[in-house]
Amino acid sequence: MTQPQIAGLAVYFEFRKQSQTWQVLLTPESAEERIPASMFRRRLNPAQPRKMWKQVASTAMSAHADPAQITTDARLNFVRSMLDSLVINQWKIYNKPIVVEVTKEDLAEIRLGKTPYKIIGRVLKSRKKLGFSDKLFGEIA
Question: Are strands 54-57 and 92-93 parallel, antiparallel or unpaired?
């Protein structure tokens, strides 16, 4: 069996406030495949514990211009309003961010607008190994 080709790294963040949880997954771009960086997010609460993931893609890619001219700020601008909202509304980050590998197969699914469940599966395994609570709700102590 061949090893999957690693195309980059994704970062997962979990934010909590009262009995609600924001889950955020940032995936890398692939200039070679013309796939922009994307953010998958969902807000869970006890009344809606299984909401669908929503996708937002970056509009700035290194494939569109000289990579040196595209700043990190421009590449991450697509997540700014959500992060600003989390800060303004006093959401607290839960535990530490989790970094997982992303394969070319994962990026192909993202390009098709599909939720990257294999990446999410890697995050869930990492959550368990890193000592995250099994509960997805509840205030941070």
Answer: unpaired
